[in-house]
Amino acid sequence: MSRRTKKSLLNKQSTSSSSASGAKATAALNAVFDRFRDSSDAPDTIGQNGTIEYLEELGVGFDEPVALVIAQLLESPSMATFTREGFLKGWKSINVNSFDSMKAAIPTLRSSLADNDTFKRIYLFTFNYAREPPSKSLPLDSAMAYWKLLLEGRFDTLLPVWFEFLENMEKEKNKDLKDGDAAKRKGVVITKDTWGCLLDFVKFANEDPGLEKYDLEYGSWPTILDNFVKYFRSKHEMDLS
Amino acid sequence: MDVPNKDDLEQTWNYLEQGIEKIMRDLNSGMDIRTYMGVYTAVHNFCTSARAVSTSTQQLHQTAGVHRGAAHLLGEDLYKNLIEYLNSHLEGLKQESSKHVDEALLSYYIREWNRYTTAAKYINHLFKYLNRHWVKREMDEGKKNIYDVYTLHLVQWGSQFFTAVQKHVMDSVLKQVEKQRNGETIETAMVKSIVDSFVSLGLDENDSSKSTLEVYRKYFETPFLEATTLYYQLESKQFVAENSVVEYMKKAETRLAEEAHRVEVYLHPDINGPLMKACEKVLIQEHAGLLKDEFQQLLDEDRQEDLKRMYNLLSRIPGGLDPLRTRFEVHVRRAGISAVDKIAAEGGEKDLDPKVYVDALLEVHTQYQNLVNMAFKGEAEFVRSLDNACREFVNRNQVCKSASTRSPELLAKYADSLLRKSAKSAEEAELEGKLTAIMTVFKYVEDKDVFQKFYSKMLAKRLVNFTSASDDAETSMIGKLKEACGYEYTNKLQRMFQDMQISKDLNDNYKQWLSEKSIKTSVDFSCQVLGTSFWPLNPPNTAFNAPEVINNAISTFVDFYNDKHSGRKLSWLWHLSKGDLKANYCRGAKVPYTFQVSTFQMGVLLLFNDQTSISYESIESSVGLGRDYLDAALGAFVKQRVLLVEPAGSKPGPGTTYSLNFDFKSKKIRVNLNTVVRAEQKQEVEETHKTIEEDRKLLMQSAIVRIMKARKVLKHVVLVQETIAQIKSRFTPKIPDIKKTIDILLEKEYLERLDGERLGYLA
């Protein structure tokens, strides 16, 4: 689904600039791209160092949500990587063709997260962005870091409980392990489905902070969220008694 | 007396009245035909006379014709006079009736009624002309309250006499009935006549030739029902205060039968419904609570007759049986649970004899099935309560506490014990009965997949070890399972059977092939070729270097087999194979002993053809067996003194040495050294449970994929329901397990999540 929305957005935004100015813009953007590309990077790719440098110069912190907005805009295939194709296409789509105009666009990109649809797009994008192939899911620490980044101000009351639950779950999985068995540690992983459903859950929880209407029996939530709600409820009961 | 002047009303009426009076009062003494004809003619003449009428009337009726107008008036005079006569006659009756009470009043009423109605018929005939012309015309013109002469009699009886006396009459009737209810004899024919007379008074307003039951219902039925209700209310209240519930039920039963009989003998059939209803209300409904409270006691004491009585009574009132069904269900469930508790306490859960367990379940079922049939007429709802209860205690009881899969496991084991060859094999007919009984329990088992797993394991063993008692019994059992669960459920079982048949032919063909090619083999060899996907058999979990003689035999067979079927791979299940060895070395034996051994044991023992004393390590490296198997094989030899261990008394293990015992002695010529280790069986049970879990996951996955493939997009909750519906016949899936399966399928990208709690199928 995220794929589809992305495509339609691009179509809408790719404005028909005249081919002359188009060529000029391409040259200017290529120049910016090459400035940050490292000789050790793969062809037509900006690697980790270049990305950090680039964001720094744009005045964007790597641990800022807007970094993800940029990554999504430029179709970054994985963490801290830009491709030339995505870079050109992305900036052109919002009529940006110089480093200065990139810098100027940051505030707009930053505020775009306030829009729910945009946020959802960025949120869903983040899963693939953060994923390390061939794994199909996110390791827990990485998922938690991104949740913290993205959900701040949106899920404040429950996020700590959710993290606590996940960490307990990991502990439970490894409770039989002895100290030396670090290699055998089994991590909790967050699947794409869980990632996607959590956003819906955030919306649900904001409307029903006590999670009273959550249907354990017949709801369509993934099992992990069912277990979370059970955890939340038993915790709640303990607090009451 | 002569026929009067046709124009003179007074004269005519006087003449008529005498005739009528005679008919009414004294018909029995007879009426001569002349008088009768006279009256008849007088009516005719009077009605047809062309007597002058007043001018005004004539003018008014000009268009209608003079004749008609005159007849109109004249008929009316006669009609009115007749009414007057009847009224005064009935007034006389009324006076007279007040002198009578009770039975006398009834007989007076009936006598007068009979006399009156008989007379009415005659008078009606005499006034036929009036009926045909004047009455008919009046009625055609839609005049109300004009009747033919007979009906007029009834109407007048009703209004002038009946209304005044009906209450007294009815009181007397009710007194009679009460007398009868109290056990006295009464003249029932009298009551019947009263009923008939009341019915006759019901006239249809729109069609006087028809009657309605209105009068009867109002003046007879209603008070009758009221009196009945009151009577039984009092009686039953008093009776239950002084007697037991069971006695009361007998009483109520009798009373209901009496009332039904009463209807037949002297009441109108129309009262049957309302009367029964009224009686049921006071006799049953108003004491239903009392009956229901007694139900448990009757169940506890297994009083079938009284339970039947209670069923019959309560089945007559709406909703009367519902609480019984609920209690019955609870009772049967408890009975089942406590029966299992008992055997679990006696036998210990772990080593419970399957037969004891199944018999306990069956006993409870049989007892209450009989009860349902005997006492509850096999009524479908009670059958359902029984089924619900049985399903509960079969799947949830003390024995199943550790795992709900215990029931199917024990049931399958019981089936195995029946179908396996044993010293006390049952007679064929008896066996068939027992297999049918197994199916009774099977019907209630929820985890049918578990039964299937264990059954097929044990069937495989019976077949492979040739320990099945009877092919017919096996076929019959598979047939029963197929009937209950369908082709898919028994498919593998049937294929296993087929493989055995095919293998038999195959071995025959092999022998023929050997003789055709003049190949001589050093061992007598036969084998079963079993399709891997149908048989629940695992490859051996140990390495094994088969003895050379065996390997030679096998390679000859493989040549033969590949000739017939190219491209098939044969793997050898050593752990299930066995053979006989002839021991020619024993000094004390006149006839050589035959050792029945497993193939593993054979591998060990044949080593002693070359050496008579071998170290453990050397045996281990030659045979290649895992230590578990090796130790078991050696252990059996040492125990039976086929081999002697050095140092003496030690357990098999490194550092020990084995030598052949040339002085081996046995009472039997055939010595069975192939004894199964029990620990192995236990491990097998655990493995079976593990495979069940795996199979269930797969079953849920394939069910979900199948549903989604067909439906493409489905609401989550609907998918869960449909999955349950599809799988229910095998086991009852838990919703969280289904959800987990959905999670897995989402992860595997068979499914995708859509908005609105829907799921989509990804091809």
From TrEMBL, chain A:
Taxonomic path: Eukaryota, Fungi, Dikarya, Ascomycota, Pezizomycotina
Annotated region described as Disordered, given as residue ranges: 1-23
Domain DCUN1 stretches: 24-233
Protein name, UniProt field: Defective in cullin neddylation protein
A Pfam short name: Cullin_binding
InterPro entries assigned to the protein according to its UniProt record, in alphabetical order: DCN-prot (IPR014764), DCN1-like_PONY (IPR042460), PONY_dom (IPR005176)
One GO biological process term: protein neddylation
Organism of this sequence: Ascodesmis nigricans
One MF term in the entry's GO annotations: ubiquitin conjugating enzyme binding
Tree of life domain: Eukaryota
Cellular component terms (Gene Ontology): ubiquitin ligase complex
Function as written in the Swiss-Prot or TrEMBL entry: Neddylation of cullins play an essential role in the regulation of SCF-type complexes activity.
UniProt biased composition (Low complexity): 10-23
UniProtKB/TrEMBL annotation, chain B:
Organism: Ascodesmis nigricans
Keyword Nucleotide-binding among UniProt keywords: no
SUPFAM superfamilies: Cullin homology domain, Cullin repeat-like, Winged helix' DNA-binding domain
Gene Ontology terms, MF aspect: ubiquitin protein ligase binding
Keyword Ubl conjugation: yes
Record-annotated Cullin family profile domain positions: 406-638
Any one GO BP annotation for this protein: SCF-dependent proteasomal ubiquitin-dependent protein catabolic process
Recorded family membership: Belongs to the cullin family.
Protein keywords: Cell cycle, Cell division, Cytoplasm, Isopeptide bond, Ubl conjugation, Ubl conjugation pathway
Subcellular location as annotated: Cytoplasm
Main location: cytoplasm
SMART domains: CULLIN, Cullin_Nedd8
Pathway(s) of this molecule: Protein modification; protein ubiquitination
Domain of life of the organism encoding this protein: Eukaryota
Gene Ontology CC terms, in alphabetical order: cytoplasm; SCF ubiquitin ligase complex
Protein name per the record: Cullin-1
Lineage: Eukaryota, Fungi, Dikarya, Ascomycota, Pezizomycotina
